[in-house]
Amino acid sequence: MTMMKKQLLSRNLCMPKPRANALLRERLFQWLDAGLAHRVIGLYATAGSGKTTLLTTYFSQREHAVLWLSLDEECNHTELFESYLLEALAPAISGEAYQHMGRALLANKPDVWLRELVELSCTGDFILVFDNVHVLKDKALLNLLSWFLHHLQDSLRVILCGRRLPDIYLSDLAMEDALVFLRQDDLLFEEEEELHFLKVTLQLKEEDAVLRSMCRKAHGWIGGLQLQSMAGVKKLQDVSCMKDDHLLHAYITKEIFEPLCAQEQAFLYALSILDSFDAAFLQVYLQDMDTDACLKSIMEKHFILIILDEETQHYCFHDILKEYLQQLLIRSPEKKKALHIRAAEAYREVGNYQECVRHYLACEDYVHAMEMLSQTPQDHRVLYYLSRIPLDVICSRADFAYQYFFYYYANFEEVACRRMYPIICEAMNEDPTFLAFQCTMPIMNGDYMNETMTIMPLDELMKLPLSDVTKSFLLLKDAFLLAMLHDTRQCRRYLSLIEDIYTATQNMYTGSMLYLIRSQIHEALGEFQQALSAYDRLKVLLQKLSFQKPSYYVGIAGIYMKQLKTQESEQALDLCDETNTRALFSIQRAGSFTRAQLYCAMRDERGLQLLETLRGDRLYDNVLLMSSLLKIVYVWKPEHPLIHEFHRACRVQKPDDFDAQLLYAMIQCDQGDSLQAMTLIDAVLQEARRTQCRYSLIEACIIKLCRLTQEEQSIKNLFIEALTYAAEQEIRLPFLYMKKYWRGNAAFIKDCLQKASPRECTFWKSLEIPLQDAVLSERELEVLRELAQGNSNRVIGEHLYISLATVKTHVLNIYSKLGVTNRIEALNYYHTYMQE
């Protein structure tokens, strides 16, 4: 865990330490011993009843493995609650399981994630304490908590500790004897316990009669004894009735707070806005005070401090005192705001950026909060903090607006993106930076053929008054568009600038999108090894951004598909579906498209079914966007209706996309327009060589040598060029979906393979393309077609009016010419290479 994360979680995960000379309540300890035989214990009472103290002293006397989670208002955010819960349970599960659940935290829906968490096996028997459980109010979260409590493993016990139990259904657990309660009256001190608390724990030196008088006025309420000791024994009052907030606050004001000196009061005010504090931080936060002396003074006055870590002097206020001080601050909003700003600046100075943001948000200083969010490393809390900032503040500055959109986009919050995009556009359309942002949504949705797409010149973009992180997001958008338009040189330049920004800022959203786009560009260029390397770097970031796992899996599935590693591709697509628990439409679309390509390459009818499903997607109203899939369909099902629709669209739109041009050239060639086909292919070859787009270069070489040229040297040159690049990156798909067009070139290719490198020869063998020109006579072709219809030798003889012996002779000649040994192999050869 990083230092920052330790700072964030320490207070929530740290079980308070029992104070020195704490009272050991053996009567209640025995009750807890018996209570832990049940699945859940409900411990609820008012503030100051000794709930937390009872548990911490009990655990100090027992050898239980305790997991502690102190809850606060932020825990009503489901993802934050689950992140805290995972950290709390970390000691109870294996390291591998912990890492897995951390990666899955944002990839899965909350209920799915929690179900998976519950199914993990604990490494032993543990007790999980939810302290301050009364702060949980979010209905969806309470439903999750209820489900969690109803499905606990036998090795885990839960204690719900708070002023009241959460609003969840627990009656069935009680009826099953799985739930027991410890209530307020059970926690009241007996008289001897009260005296021990005053004499031994608080170390009051008053006469026994005075102490007994204090006990009578407290009526067993621990908080009452503590308050009287803070006020002083000369001001004894009946405090048992002061559990009412109004009376309690009046008592604290008159008897405890007002007698303090001005510096002590100011010190308490300053501490009241902090969730916790330590001596080192106080020296930064309150530089104008002698914080060590102030801290010592309030401790000597028996102020109710909870010890989190005695060694580092890490404390927090008891709720009674904290809530009183916060009520005072409500009457002084300017003082409260000033303290939050002061705390934010102090946390910024010590490097605790998340606490810094929290304090800016607490005083509604949204501008500074956004500035911090835009400059600091991000984690899964970013959307929670962004959700607390009003949209009008977001739209007040270009930096805020653009980052706000990209954070939601990077988190695949598709609905939120569609909602906020027009709002941001309307708010920023007169801003000089807007040209760099416009068209972001269509480009990210894949509509990169829209004629209105524009890219701000790079030198102008870099001069915009925007932060580097914002510029990186805008550069990513433009790099994606440049990649789709095959401007690889400029795209690489953009990516280089983005990497420089990522190195400097370590913004993980920048990094994840950088490697995702870089991998897609390398794939489009046919640089598969570099693409897989980029995916490896993305995989490292998935430990924190696990919601991007579906993008990772669908991406590598596409590479495996083009390498015809069909099993690996299908496994990756299955993992994409499995991790896309939020049913993100963009991921489903990409997965379906890749799966359709894979199935069509395998001649699997499921590919055509997926093709029909994709056709219903509004994006593919422009059929040219399906070119990479339709190329595969065409060599398998050339009469498919979408092929005719594509052909009509090409005649109107004149595509400049490589995939569309290559498919259009094949169609033109097969329809007899070899001249136009040759013109298209030569143009693709020239441009692919210029831009070093090796994937399209390989395809163009294969199409030309198979369909458009019969000149020996040209065939050899094209084959060598295609084989060299394909073997280097294991690019197989263009070879295999052109299989039946190899006939007639066997001799030329054999000559080339004699001079090829061992790697190239090995690669060629992996394609399993036979190099025998099957020149069958007309009669042998007739016999082969009869065989393909499943007819026996006798039936073939009857159909062709030849003897059975002649049929057998023709069959043997067919086997010999095709290089096969039986009827099944002959028919496979026929269907693969010869059937028109």
Number of strands: 8
Question: Count of DSSP helices?
Answer: 48
Order of the strands making up the biggest sheet: 2-3-4-1-5
Please outline the major beta sheet: 5 strands, parallel
> According to CATH, what is the class of the domain at 4-187?
Alpha Beta
CATH superfamily of the domain at 4-187: P-loop containing nucleotide triphosphate hydrolases
CATH architecture of the domain at 4-187: 3-Layer(aba) Sandwich
- Can you give the helix content as a percent range? 55-70%
Strand residue percentage: under 5%
- The residue ranges in which pLDDT falls below 50 over 5 or more consecutive positions are 1-9
Q: The CATH topology of the domain at 4-187 is what?
A: Rossmann fold
User: What is the alpha-carbon Rg in Å?
Assistant: 37 Å
How many angstroms separate the termini?
62 Å
Structural class: mainly alpha
Tell me, rounded to a whole number, the average pLDDT.
85
Shape descriptor: elongated
Pfam families: GerE (PF00196), WHD_MalT (PF25873)
Protein name: HTH luxR-type domain-containing protein
Keywords: DNA-binding, Transcription, Transcription regulation
GO molecular function: DNA binding
